[in-house]
Amino acid sequence: MNIRTQPRTDTMSAAIITGPGELRLERLPVPEPGPGQVRIKLQGCGVCASNLVPWAGPDWMRFPTEPGALGHEGWGIIDKIGEDVHGFAQGDRVAALSYHAYATHDIADQTAIASLPAALADQPFPGEPLGCAFNIFRRSAIRPGETVAIIGIGFLGILLTELASAAGARVIAISRRPSSLASAKRAGASEVIAMDDHWQIIDKVKQLTSGALCDCVVEAVGKQWPLDLAAELTKERGRLIIAGYHQDGPRQVNMQLWNWRGLDVINAHERDPAVYMRGIREAIEATAAGRLSPSRLYTHRFRLEELGAALDMTRDRPEGFIKALVIYDE
Questions:
Q1: Under a CB-based contact definition with an 8 Å cutoff, are residues 129 and 155 in contact?
Q2: pTM of the complete model
Q3: SS3 for 78?
Q4: What pLDDT digit, counting tens, does each position of 235-287 carry?
Q5: Is 217 helix (H, G, I), strand (E, B) or coil?
Q6: CA gap 117, 120 in Å, rounded
């Protein structure tokens, strides 16, 4: 008689970061949802550049991390519902704003999940970074006919290029990698510039704008030089949008330039979960309607046990890399 072994449903796999550049997987009991919460059997989780500072092990970081910690771009199937949950059912496929998603299961508040429609049934959906793109785009207030420079053409920069171009803006994309510039062109950029020499980039943008510079500049790198460059490319009374994640140390700004040009400087990071979720829902709607095409940007996929390699690749950004996903097959 053949006996088929059924997968265990009372335990889960979770990644625990044990030190700088080191992690292990553990088998742990699945968590139980409380009132107003759901448990999600995750299908995958995007790898975010914000993970890289903790992964490097700065002085303030404490190891080991909680199981699944740092993962916050998960999506999957609701497999258990707590009390007082309304509008969701077991079996619903959702994108989640949860914070222990480097694991096969995670808990999320019902206010921090969004249903994924049938049109997205076969697509990975890391909701948090897709929502970020829509929130940054809203804060940027980009209008038809404006000239917009986007510095840093990774996952976020490509999405912003697509959104700004669709809104009728002229986009100048600036990045160090030829593959990123090619991606920006496919996303609708009118011009692309290699990010190599500071003053040559400024001169090129002056040529492209007849000396006027840009109505709006989005800095999406998170380093000092791109921040300096972004200010130089913004015209008088223009908008400088800080979308890069600047968490690896202090920054200096050229306040003389910012002040003289009268720049509107907008830190486009959000911390209100409700605002995050609004962006995620907008991203779901746009992707389902075919107005946004993120699937082509998921260039590398890893298993959970390969999370370390996924983080290293996100740090090193080899030619052709845009975004890594960790895919769970339990």
A1: yes
A2: 0.94
A3: strand
A4: 999 999 999 999 888 999 999 999 999 999 999 999 999 999 999 999 999 99
A5: strand
A6: 6
